[in-house]
Amino acid sequence: MAKVYYEKDGDLKNLAGKTVAIIGYGSQGHAHALNLRDSGVKVIVGLQPTSASRAKVQAQKLEVYDPAEATKRADVIMVLVPDQTAAKLYKESIGPNLTAGKTLAFAHGFNIHFKFILPPKDVDVIMIAPKCPGHRLRELFTEGVGVPSLLAIEQDATGHAEATGLAYAKGIGSLKAGVIGTTFKEETETDLFGEQSVLCGGVSALITAGFETLVEAGYQPEIAYFECLHELKMIVDLIYQGGIKYMRYSVSDTAEYGDYTRGPRVVDEHVRETMKKVLAEIQSGKFANEWMDENAKGRKNFLEMRAKGASNLIEKVGSELRKMMPWISTSKEEVTAAQAAARK
Fold first, then answer.
1. Cβ neighbours of residue 221 under 8 Å, at least 6 residues apart?
2. What pLDDT, on a 0 to 100 scale, did the predictor assign at position 330?
């Protein structure tokens, strides 16, 4: 069973007198920085001089420096930039300014596990990975509630890496919910597999295939959209709330019977074998090298796939149907404008 840490296991005193540099100020970066600051930790932010996020940082009364200077000034450096840019940033700005005894931290193990970043042996290397988007991490922190995180220690040069990691986890609020011990290898490989086979790749391909099957059979695209995409949120919410068992309890007996008898025919042994191949490509580093190579060559294939996906019929149909659903929009003004446009 996994080891789980709670409030009693972390002590903010282990960050007392230390400075934490948050490198990047996106979804995760802003949440980490603000939560740590509100927990009494000294926080600075590292951003490029041209970054549009500098204004946001300054509006929050946080000190902002370029990544190299932030690394020099900090004892703990949390790298929260995209996987594909982290290695270059490390080589140019972070690595040259790491000194013995500092802590290099990540919220995802990609670059360390696949050795795109090779830290010196005299620094601690840790991971604190919240299991939610940054805005949710911040939102629940302000409500006095934490979200679970993962903790991994890749390198313990000082003998205090775990204590530092648990103090950091306490500072962002995660020890209120629980922090699960893992490794960089386990977090990285399971995260990539989940994204590719289930959460992003698997779900989007399944939705699109179902939608196109109905449309090709002569059914209206709008009806196909509702049945194969729109109602997915209801099902996911039930699973999120109480697991697959609770979802099956909540739907009709007809739906439950169809789940048992037809689901395994769609996700059959062929799909499982494909999943194993996908996992093997992750474990071997094939996917990681392919992705980094794609970025190095200008992301041509990636951008073409993005554009093709955005132009699919399911996206056009969904864009129109969502105008009928005011509960999805973020403001009354947007709802009013969307519905008025739909009626014209």
1. 211, 215, 313, 314, 317
2. 52
Q: What is the pLDDT of residues 18-53, one digit of tens each?
A: 999 999 999 999 999 999 999 999 999 999 999 999
Please provide the DSSP assignment of 172-200 as one string. Answer: TTGGGT-EEE--HHHHHHHHHHIIIIIIT
Closest by Cα among 70, 62, 75, 69 to 34: 62
Catalytic residue (one of 32, 108, 113, 270): 108
Residue 335 has pLDDT above 50, yes or no: no
Q: CB neighbours of 270 closer than 8 A, spacing ≥ 6?
A: none
- Cβ proximity of 146 and 138 under 8 Å: no
pLDDT digits (tens, 9 = 90+) for 196-222: 999 999 999 999 999 999 999 999 999
Q: What percent of the chain has pLDDT over 90?
A: 93
| Mean pLDDT for the stretch of residues 4-9 | 97
CA 154 to chain centre: 20
Report d(CA 89, CA 163) in Å as an integer: 27
C-beta of residue 175 within 8 angstroms of C-beta of residue 6: yes
Q: How far, in Å, CA of 66 to CA of 21, rounded? A: 11
Per-residue DSSP letter, 128: E
Strand partners, 125: 104, 155
Copy the structure tokens of residue 39.
């927990």
> Is 230 an annotated catalytic residue?
no
Nearest alpha carbon to residue 184 among 100, 131, 128: 128
